[in-house]
Predict the 3D structure of the following.
Amino acid sequence: MTRLQKLALLLSVLLLVATSASAMEYKEHPILARMVEEGLLPPVEERLPKDVMVVQPLHEMGRYGGTARVFNAEAPSRPYSANMLMGSKGPFRATPDAKPGAPNLWKGYDVNDDFTEWTFYLREGLRWSDGYPLTAWEYYDYWRYDRCNPEINPAINPDYVTFEDNAVTVYNEDGRRRTIRREVVDDYTIRITCDKPFPTLINSLSHPHNDWNYFVQPMHFLKQFHPDFIGLEAAQAKAEKAGFGTWYQLYEYFTNRQGQQTTSQVLGNFPPTLEAYVLVSKTQTTMVYERNPYFWKVDTDGYQLPYIDRIIVEHVPDREIIVGKIISGEVDFEGFMTETPDIPLYRRYEQTGNYRTEIWNFAANATGLQLNMCYKDPVVRDLFRNRDFRIALQISVDRERINDEIMFGMARPVRMSVLPGTMWYKPEYEEMYKEYDPERAKQILDSIGVIDRDGDGWRDDPQGRPIAFDIEYIVSEAPRAQILEIVEQNFRDIGINATVVQREATFGFQREHTNDMAVWVWHGDARTEMLFPAYINAHMFPVHPGVGWWQWFTSEGQVGEEPPEDVKELFEWFNNLQYSTSREELIYWGQKMLDNAAENVWRITTVCDFPHPMIVNNDIANYPTKDDGPLIYEWSTWWTNAYEPTQFFFKTRPQLTYEESLLPHIYSPSEMSKDPLQRAMEYGWL
């Protein structure tokens, strides 16, 4: 069966689902039914799209009810554990085994044989949370007035953009010398045409972090702050009234982007969202979400999703507080702030805390050290660029000890590469330089002149200059602190003066984009067929942190630092991977890159594929277990998103009542008609 035949079959199945959905009798939560009676909402049939997405509940039909309590110790605007209960609004999504292209906001697509023309089909009748229709034209406005505005999007070069009445064309997009034309064919059809093959476009569209930033914004709402619609003088006046210096700062404040990696609305359902939930209350420490009355998914009996009534996210100072709340039974769900070493503790208190500990495969490298090849200190920078120095660091790490002491022997003590089973996998990628051999590491350092010249116990560079650098990390997901304690000692045992430093999340993310940071630590994910080919992996290749080689390459020399010729070649291979016209080409160029990564040891990695605990209240049903699939805990799958979190439900918790709900207030005429600036100031958000 050809690719087009397979896609045609998929679309025919989707059409059958849509046909059966159109014959459904839709049902809704009693609060929404009351709001319809009160004239606050149109009937459910008018709120749902014609091409509604029908979700098959995982184990059983759910019920409405319950408030989920979630805590967060990262940046307040990154409530990832809450996202694991909400799902994603992306055009497509990953399957449980991390393959791209599963239908989601968009219902299907066609693509030609050389991946130069893609046609995408939207669900007819989609609406934002304020009831405004979502058509292909909102995407057009987004492309033209948001992504192609250099003040909103400084990465865009206006000289590389042309506009038509129904299309936007960008030349040299993302520095890859690819011309992309985004075209509105009709109200519910988008066509993307490229001058070079774009086989990974579906990967980007299946993940919330795609290259064109969050897919779409509610332009019908944002136009009231944009000078192309209200004039520069009016836009600037609104910004100054709100305390901003420029119009685009106010505009960005009202996007659900806000420079963050998760959607976090500013006020009520403003800006409007396509998510399963709208933000109904917000303070400095707490965010409260309730169901989106216009959410576009139903179960197989026609009940509008989501099932869970309310999600409360509370920001706390550190992860240890969350651990205490878990074992005391105050947490209903937690997946982002849990760590492997705490599994025995979680198990011990399951009965008293009324929860279960589900173990997923964290399909990543547990803790990877990303070396800044353009670090401001020339001594450290030059050593980072020396392959022998990197090999010495790599073989000085005791992976078996990390696995035994921290991962209960359940991880794989191998080098990071793509997941076994992907099209590029070779065993040697994981085996090369994985051994723990500190004596050989010392010999390598001696051979390149990195020795202790002054007798202080620390090695110096060949010119006698002292070597010292920080390894910076934030608390998030993997057990970095425990692993880095071992890594720091391993480095010091071979005479390298490295110091591990924990950073506050927001500060850490700011520093990673500067050359003030020597080493940034992250778990090495994106090893899947979903994400590995879609963008160059910072966990395997020399592209991050700092402003350096990759920025130079993608900006054609406008930003960053020019890399050596062999690194330029590596980046060109990535472009060739992006231009592949067949599976064979994808494999060829991907393996060339991975051969390079294995030989050059661009990153220092620890152990892979380790157990990750997910805490689930015993009253929550339809949550996947080990019998339901691979249970890949990974950014590629957006964690739980492949299992459709909107169908999770509480078995016994009572429904939120009309009087308890904040939705009637949010959707009242007085609130809906307020000027957004007035509303933001009234609530103290500006």
About this structure: Residues 3-22 form the longest helix (20 residues).
